[in-house]
């Protein structure tokens, strides 16, 4: 954690106001045809993430499932940041070893010197120039699936199959508004009315998802798709953070039988649970959101051992990777420490 982090945390709750996420990102795309000036090129780009962030966790999972580790390197920021930027405090000397920078902010300023918006992860940086290409998290994962196919591993799943894209997009849109962002609309609500509204929408949508998943293993079709990746990263953080810290406390995930079994099924699938760092997740939310948690005390719980229990979702059929195969274990430098995972609670 940067020395000045406690003195310079951002403000996340505006009294009397409903929370609105700024979704104006750098929309430049890395595409096969180089339409925006950044063609697909292995070894040229670096994906910068933070394991704590659900939006970044999506990109980590997709990169892993598709086997793009050799084509796109990955830099990992620490779990906490101040109001200026995510930082590379996990790396020796506090600098990313490839980009040579201490703050992700530096890469944004190399692209747009007067950049005024949030410094967010995931972000993809052009290594030769040191400048951010994009931080458009929703498009990043879709482009990894559709533009980088030449560099996918043998057996990579199709996470965004063309015949299901309309359904995936439809489900992902409501999940984003009412679940992925819905927990933030609860946690960052500045009025009772806006909190109540977000709370009711969140749990109505979770009930809808439970009904949808009661008799089918995955959200769209019979294989894992982009829609499942997007929902999983919110569910993985629900009991550890959102239930208490964001006041999403009608029910814990572990008290919603269908969603709990669905989440465990994905967690136990290579690429999901082994990219989930519960220690960093808790440190991020409870330390960074100091206007919600002024003491910055990080809770020791919850007990994570339940993530490793039998889910029985395989009885619904489905094939996790379709005609593909599971990814190999993560590279050594990208392993989540056992002490930070559900393994520590066995």
TrEMBL record:
<feature type="domain" description="GST C-terminal">
    <location>
        <begin position="161"/>
        <end position="285"/>
    </location>
</feature>
<dbReference type="Pfam" id="PF13410">
    <property type="entry name" value="GST_C_2"/>
</dbReference>
<dbReference type="InterPro" id="IPR010987">
    <property type="entry name" value="Glutathione-S-Trfase_C-like"/>
</dbReference>
<protein>
    <submittedName>
        <fullName>Glutathione S-transferase C-terminal domain-containing protein</fullName>
    </submittedName>
</protein>
<feature type="region of interest" description="Disordered">
    <location>
        <begin position="317"/>
        <end position="346"/>
    </location>
</feature>
<dbReference type="InterPro" id="IPR036282">
    <property type="entry name" value="Glutathione-S-Trfase_C_sf"/>
</dbReference>
<dbReference type="Pfam" id="PF13409">
    <property type="entry name" value="GST_N_2"/>
</dbReference>
<dbReference type="InterPro" id="IPR036249">
    <property type="entry name" value="Thioredoxin-like_sf"/>
</dbReference>
<dbReference type="InterPro" id="IPR004045">
    <property type="entry name" value="Glutathione_S-Trfase_N"/>
</dbReference>
<dbReference type="InterPro" id="IPR040079">
    <property type="entry name" value="Glutathione_S-Trfase"/>
</dbReference>
<dbReference type="InterPro" id="IPR016639">
    <property type="entry name" value="GST_Omega/GSH"/>
</dbReference>
<dbReference type="InterPro" id="IPR047047">
    <property type="entry name" value="GST_Omega-like_C"/>
</dbReference>
């Amino acid at each position: 954690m940067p020395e000045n982090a406690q003195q310079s945390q951002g403000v996340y709750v505006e009294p009397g106001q409903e929370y609105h996420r700024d979704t104006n990102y750098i929309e430049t795309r890395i595409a096969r045809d180089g339409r925006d000036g950044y063609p697909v090129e292995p070894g040229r780009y670096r994906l910068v993430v933070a394991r704590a962030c659900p939006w970044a966790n999506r990109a980590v999972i997709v990169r892993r499932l598709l086997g793009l580790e050799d084509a796109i390197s990955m830099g990992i920021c620490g779990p906490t940041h101040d109001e200026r930027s995510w930082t590379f405090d996990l790396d020796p000397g506090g600098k990313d070893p490839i980009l040579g920078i201490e703050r992700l902010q530096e890469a944004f300023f190399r692209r747009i010197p007067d950049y005024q918006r949030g410094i967010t992860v995931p972000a993809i940086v052009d290594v030769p120039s040191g400048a951010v290409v994009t931080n458009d998290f929703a498009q990043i994962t879709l482009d990894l699936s559709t533009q980088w196919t030449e560099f996918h591993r043998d057996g990579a799943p199709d996470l965004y199959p063309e015949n299901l894209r309309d359904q995936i997009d439809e489900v992902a849109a409501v999940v984003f508004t009412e679940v992925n962002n819905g927990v933030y609309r609860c946690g960052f609500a500045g009025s009772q009315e806006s909190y109540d509204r977000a709370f009711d929408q969140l749990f109505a949508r979770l009930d809808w998802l439970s009904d949808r998943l009661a008799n089918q293993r995955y959200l769209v079709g019979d294989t894992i798709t982009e829609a499942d990746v997007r929902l999983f990263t919110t569910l993985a953080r629900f009991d550890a953070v959102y239930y208490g810290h964001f006041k999403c406390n009608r029910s814990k995930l572990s008290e919603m039988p269908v969603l709990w079994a669905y989440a465990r099924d994905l967690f136990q699938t290579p690429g999901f649970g082994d990219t989930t760092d519960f220690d960093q997740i808790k440190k991020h939310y409870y330390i960074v959101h100091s206007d919600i948690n002024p003491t910055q005390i990080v809770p020791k719980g919850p007990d994570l051992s339940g993530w490793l229990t039998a889910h029985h979702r395989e009885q619904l059929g489905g094939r996790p990777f379709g005609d593909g195969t599971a990814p190999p274990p993560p590279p050594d430098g990208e392993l989540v420490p056992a002490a930070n995972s559900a393994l520590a609670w066995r």
